[in-house]
Fold this protein.
Amino acid sequence: MSKRPLVLTILDEWGYRVKDLCSAITPVRIIFSVALPLALAQMVSAQSVPASPPPLPPATASSSSISHAQLAEYLQAAGTLGGAKAATTNQLAESRKRIPAWFPPNVWAAFERKVTAIDMAEVYLPVYRKYLTAETLNGLILVYQGPTGQEFARVSTQRVIDAIQQGSVGHAADTNAANAMDANGESALLTKRIKELTPEQRAAYQKAAATYQTVLKPLDDEQNAAYAQKVQDLWHETVKEHNAEILAAQNAASHPHP
């Protein structure tokens, strides 16, 4: 048996596991999108606010580009990084249970280290730059600042982690987390935070939120695809680096000593 077919077989078997791993990584922003329409509707009914601008096209090259530092700050403030870390740990642990018993533990450990070290902002940056501007991201981050915003980020992140630990992934985790927040009265945190903003901040936030809503689906789909590709690339890289060791372990398992 040649080495190449074995490597391809291993990769093929684990292709869907990589997709499973990626499906639960970016749920916190979805919680935001679920709660956002309700919060904005409550704000509109409570006071006079500027009308939402018409849908905007993806950000153009002339727009102010989002920097790595700015996106990292946004992901940190929104709780996305904390949620991603917890989701990754959970998914890796579940995936580890399904690999063949003969698979070298140190090779899997090397893969885990690569995945947990992923720079989420670096992976997402091209997608965010495609759809949003620095100005829009500055508007969005307002809702996560201050004690109320930090509490909203903390609670929404925890609800998503709870849903993932209960077996939900992807959109199901988002929905279950949003429902839990509604049941616990925690969605009111977003409304409260919006009310705390100054008129200028509120206008900037509402403009940013309206833009965000128009590009949410393609942005979400493309950032998930980018992350999935990154994880898959790391798996290929790990298998290539440890190909001889994997082959030896499989051969030993196939031909045990009497």
Notes: The chain has one domain: 3-254. The first helix runs from residue 3 to 23. Residues 1-57 have pLDDT under 50 and may be disordered.
